[in-house]
């Protein structure tokens, strides 16, 4: 059992202990899966630490145009080529809310079990920065579009990472806001270049409550969120392209005491770095506190090269953002079937119920269906969803073959995915598509080839020469010998050539039979079905 | 011809009595003749003549675009105009040439109007005198009128009048002066706290502030987004209705414009005010109100009563909090709106290059005048986390109470409110600058800003001349989106008031003489 943490009914199965030298030898979470406190206290008499991690995730909305202007959204465009007058904050320009961005946020809110606010408001958040042309960001500080949601995610635990544990993180709110532009600093010439292509792209800021307690949990939660966003299409959520950006709020405290001072870790651009940054920061804080230091409420950047967090120098002191209602945008009113006014133009309103009805199956639902429909293991359902396009490939193959899905999954995960990982390819880039894999598995299933021959064929297919599995089988003469008489003769010849072994078997040493089977396989270049060979040999030996 | 109302000159154009080019040229030369008024920041002579030529072609083809085709109009220099410098009378935007037209400007051009120039104002429209812009103060054309000069008993030597000339009021003083001195037939102003109505009153023209949400603000460089409205300055109420008909309506580029379709209207020629109820807010009877303005106000009330209207005293109990509340909200939005002027994307940029921050600071110090900087500072103070509740939220609550005052009065059966527009007639510049901008605004916006706080339509109608021979205007405030009713009442009143026409001949003759002198000197 886990112990409740002060300030909420949250359960945490993790306890942190300072480990000497941990900071320098690569931080690792301690005592995974252990009951917090107990073991640690018994070992050293020092109270254990508990870490608290909350996340703010900025997801770029996948939309054709920006949230308040008609400029296109495109990741790869020449600098400052997608900038409207509004994006450059020319005086007199006004924001016009993009309906698509609202729908994306509602969709995301519904998928995260949020309450959707029928009325939400926009605010200005002021700060001077070169890539923020208006001197303020339009966001939703007072009344965001969605609140009080929940995200379930699953962690693999245990020695072999084979045990699945499902956890929850509460979603505080989702707010719509504008992205800023990009500053490119040239330190050598002390110049800053500004690219406003990103300025004004729609963002959903998903604020997660501090319900996580280590980097792995944070990474797993974000991974699940990423899958949900991608399933919805509300964001492409590619971290490497900055479409999903994560800030982590980290603090440590002793169980039973109130939360510690938190730091905010920024600059995290992959899930792996998220886990590392959070764990590093937890260990750093513990070490700091145990050495009698204090934690400052500061913003730190994760340096992925050094693997550590460092204070950000441009954030001197506390910023006062001087929030103010955005006067140019009326309250955002959403409707449901009940409140929808009669005779209203569909294009003028966003109907929550309409969006709810059209939500696609979420990853969690898909996983349950995969397990139920195909009888595969839950962890395999995770693997299928984690790789973009893998589930579709698996289902296509299952549809095209007579092979049991439980066998298909092995081929898809161990063989196909294994190979893709080895060469760092995505499913889309795979030279072996669902069709050729299905063809191959059908050959195996129909007994045309052995499973070892099938692997050989797969190797050929990787070369991407456009040959069908059958062509390869033919060219390489990999078919199993179907002709009983031919096999009979080969077995006969092997027995005749190895009289000593035959005598031994007849004398009762059945183990030697395997040697004969092996010899037959060698004689047929492994094209014989071993079961059939065994049957033939047994029959002949008993004659 | 130039003294005619828009409606009349429009008829003349249609009937071919005058051509658009001719009209444009006459206005351009009058602008030159009245240059000392400093009403215009930019005179767009070339584009105006080109537009007039286009208009002329349309008339020749019999394809006139409507009542505004070929009519010279002026636009306050805080509306974006494609390819034409738009300065807001600030160093910050000196040399800034917008790449787009404000919606209202585009609508005027689409109707064939000829844009004759951009008019002077207080820097970023912050002021009530049109005295605080980098191009210098606007002079009230009435300073040079026969009416004023006779009353003042001054001799008419224009060279020595530097101490007696009057302010126009503001901040749309350039537009008011332009319309009043016959250099254009209509002008756009902006109205945030009275910036259209105040100079209209001082310059003896009609100033209309439409209902918030009726006319697009897209392209109007903002002062206070939640109160700004493009204003209309014309020589008569009918003309204001005509221009409103062109400007009003939903704009997809301004989300605060209402979606309900707007039907342009013509005001009736026979008006009966007998069934109307005119409200006289008792709180507007304040100590600072000049006795002659008070007299004009009560005479106007009598006029309505005599015509059979019900004239009742009404109460707007939160009036006394209005001006201070207006200043808090105004400063807060100004602080926010001015944040974009950092010298990076457009406008002035300081040479200071020590760091981005020092460049921002120097740019803003060099670009803004004291008034603007003062409002930015106080606005940021009001928005600080520890002050937000105390100032901004409180002011917003009071704003709601003020708006509710009007709702209550109108729901009690009052159709239109009648109030003074300003405390008194226009004062000489030397007088005006004795007080600072902040004090002046607080006094001058006293009767006007409540309509902005509550979003209601209001119009200042020239009513009578003061003892000094200067215009006194009265203000009508109507129900939201009831411009037809408001302007109908105003038109009836205008007819009764018989406000005299500005007599500028002396000044024009003088200018004429001057220009002849120049010509003879140069030849």
TrEMBL record, chain A:
It is found in: Mitochondrion. The keyword Repeat does not apply. Residues 392-541 form the Asn/Gln amidotransferase domain. GO terms for molecular function: asparaginyl-tRNA synthase (glutamine-hydrolyzing) activity; ATP binding; glutaminyl-tRNA synthase (glutamine-hydrolyzing) activity; transferase activity. Keywords: ATP-binding, Ligase, Mitochondrion, Nucleotide-binding, Protein biosynthesis. GO terms for cellular component: glutamyl-tRNA(Gln) amidotransferase complex; mitochondrion. Belongs to the GatB/GatE family. GatB subfamily. This is Glutamyl-tRNA(Gln) amidotransferase subunit B, mitochondrial.
């Amino acid at each position: 059992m886990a112990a409740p943490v002060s300030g909420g009914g949250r359960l945490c199965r993790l306890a942190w202990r300072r480990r000497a030298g941990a900071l320098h030898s690569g931080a690792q979470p301690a005592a995974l899966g252990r009951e917090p406190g107990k073991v640690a206290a018994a070992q050293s008499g020092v109270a254990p630490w508990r870490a608290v991690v909350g996340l703010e995730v900025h997801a770029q909305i996948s939309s054709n145009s920006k949230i308040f202007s008609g400029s296109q959204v495109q990741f790869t465009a020449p600098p400052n080529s997608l900038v409207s007058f509004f994006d450059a904050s020319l005086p007199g320009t006004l924001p016009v809310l993009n309906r698509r961005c609202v729908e994306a946020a509602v969709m995301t809110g519904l998928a995260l079990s949020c309450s959707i606010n029928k009325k939400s408001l926009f605010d200005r958040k002021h700060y001077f920065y070169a890539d923020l042309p208006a001197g303020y960001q339009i966001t939703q500080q007072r009344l965001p579009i969605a609140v009080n949601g929940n995200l379930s995610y699953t962690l693999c635990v245990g020695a072999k990472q084979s045990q699945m544990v499902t956890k929850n993180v509460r979603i505080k709110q989702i707010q719509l806001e504008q992205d800023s532009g990009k500053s490119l600093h040239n330190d050598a010439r002390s110049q800053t270049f500004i690219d406003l292509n990103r300025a004004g792209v729609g963002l959903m800021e998903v604020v997660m409550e501090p319900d996580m307690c280590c980097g792995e949990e944070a990474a797993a939660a974000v991974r699940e969120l990423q899958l949900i966003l991608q399933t919805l299409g509300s964001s492409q959520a590619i971290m490497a392209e900055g479409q999903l950006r994560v800030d982590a709020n980290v603090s440590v405290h002793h169980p039973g005491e109130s939360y510690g001072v938190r730091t905010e870790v920024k600059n995290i651009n992959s899930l792996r770095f998220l886990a590392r940054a959070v764990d590093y920061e937890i260990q750093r804080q513990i070490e700091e506190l145990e050495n009698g230091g204090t934690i400052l409420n500061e913003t730190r950047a994760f340096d992925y090269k050094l693997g550590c967090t460092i204070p950000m120098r441009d954030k001197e002191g506390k910023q006062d953002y001087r929030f103010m209602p955005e006067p140019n945008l009326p309250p955002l009113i959403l409707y449901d079937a009940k409140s929808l006014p009669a005779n209203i133009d569909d294009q003028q309103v966003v109907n929550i119920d309409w969006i709810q009805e059209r939500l696609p199956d979420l990853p969690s639902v898909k996983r349950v269906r995969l397990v139920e429909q195909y009888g595969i293991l839950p962890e395999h359902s995770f693997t299928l969803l984690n790789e973009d396009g893998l589930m579709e490939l698996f289902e296509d193959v299952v549809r095209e073959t007579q092979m049991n899905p439980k066998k298909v999954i092995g081929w898809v995960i161990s063989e196909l995915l294994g190979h893709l990982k080895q060469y760092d390819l995505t499913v889309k880039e795979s030279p072996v598509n669902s069709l050729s894999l299905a063809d191959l598995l059908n050959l195996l299933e129909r007994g045309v080839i052995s499973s070892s021959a099938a692997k050989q064929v797969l190797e050929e297919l990787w070369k991407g020469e456009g040959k069908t599995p059958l062509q390869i089988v033919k060219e390489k003469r990999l078919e199993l010998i179907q002709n009983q008489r031919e096999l009979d003769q080969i077995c006969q010849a092997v027995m005749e050539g190895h009289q000593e072994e035959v005598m031994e078997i007849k004398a009762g040493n059945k183990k030697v039979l395997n040697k004969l089977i092996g010899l037959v396989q060698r004689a047929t270049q492994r094209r014989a079905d071993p079961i059939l060979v065994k049957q033939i040999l047994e029959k002949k030996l008993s004659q | 011809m130039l003294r005619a109302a828009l409606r009349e000159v429009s008829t003349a154009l249609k009937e071919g009595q005058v051509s658009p080019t001719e009209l444009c040229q006459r206005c351009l030369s009058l602008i030159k003749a009245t240059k000392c008024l400093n009403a215009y920041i930019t005179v767009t002579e070339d584009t105006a003549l080109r537009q007039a030529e286009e208009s002329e072609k349309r008339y020749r083809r019999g394809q006139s675009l409507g009542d505004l085709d070929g009519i010279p109009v002026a636009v306050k220099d805080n509306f974006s105009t494609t390819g034409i410098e738009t300065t807001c009378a600030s160093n910050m935007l000196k040399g800034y040439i917008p790449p787009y037209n404000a919606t209202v400007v585009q609508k005027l051009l689409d109707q064939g109007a000829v844009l004759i120039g951009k008019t002077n104002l207080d820097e970023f429209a912050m002021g009530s005198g049109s005295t605080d812009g980098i191009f210098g103060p606007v002079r009230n054309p009435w300073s040079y009128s026969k009416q004023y000069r006779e009353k003042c008993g001054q001799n008419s030597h224009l060279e020595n009048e530097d101490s007696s000339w009057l302010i126009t009021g503001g901040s749309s003083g350039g537009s008011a002066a332009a319309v009043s001195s016959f250099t254009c037939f209509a002008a756009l102003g902006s109205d945030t706290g009275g910036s259209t109505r105040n100079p209209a009153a001082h310059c003896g023209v009609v100033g209309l502030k439409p209902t918030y949400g009726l006319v697009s603000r897209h392209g109007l460089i903002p002062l206070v987004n939640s109160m700004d409205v493009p204003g209309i300055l014309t020589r008569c109420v009918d003309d204001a209705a005509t221009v409103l008909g062109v400007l009003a309506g939903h704009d997809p580029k301004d989300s605060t414009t209402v979606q309900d379709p707007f039907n342009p209207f013509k005001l009736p020629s026979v008006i009966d005010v007998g069934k109307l109820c005119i409200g006289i807010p008792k709180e507007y009877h304040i100590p600072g109100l000049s006795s002659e303005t008070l007299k004009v106000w009560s005479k106007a009330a009598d006029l309505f009563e005599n015509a059979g209207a019900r004239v009742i005293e009404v109460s707007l109990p939160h009036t006394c909090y209005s001006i201070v509340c207006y200043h808090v909200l105004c400063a807060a939005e100004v602080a926010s709106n001015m944040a974009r002027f950092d010298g990076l994307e457009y406008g002035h940029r300081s040479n200071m290059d020590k760091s981005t921050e020092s460049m921002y600071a120097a740019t803003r110090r060099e670009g803004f005048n004291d008034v603007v900087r003062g409002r930015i500072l106080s606005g940021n103070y009001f928005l600080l986390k520890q002050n937000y509740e105390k100032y901004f939220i409180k002011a917003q609550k009071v704003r709601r109470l003020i708006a509710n005052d009007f709702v209550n009065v109108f729901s009690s059966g009052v159709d239109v409110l009648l109030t003074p527009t300003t405390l008194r007639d226009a004062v000489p510049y030397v007088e005006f600058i004795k007080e600072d901008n902040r004090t002046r605004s607080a006094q001058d916006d006293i009767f006007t800003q409540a309509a902005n706080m509550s979003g209601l339509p209001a119009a200042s109608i020239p009513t009578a001349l003061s003892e000094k021979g200067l215009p006194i205007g009265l203000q009508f405030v109507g129900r939201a989106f009831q411009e037809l009713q408001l302007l109908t009442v105003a038109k009836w009143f205008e007819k009764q008031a018989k406000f005299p026409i500005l007599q500028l001949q002396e000044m024009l003759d003088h200018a004429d003489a001057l220009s002849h002198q120049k010509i003879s000197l140069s030849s």
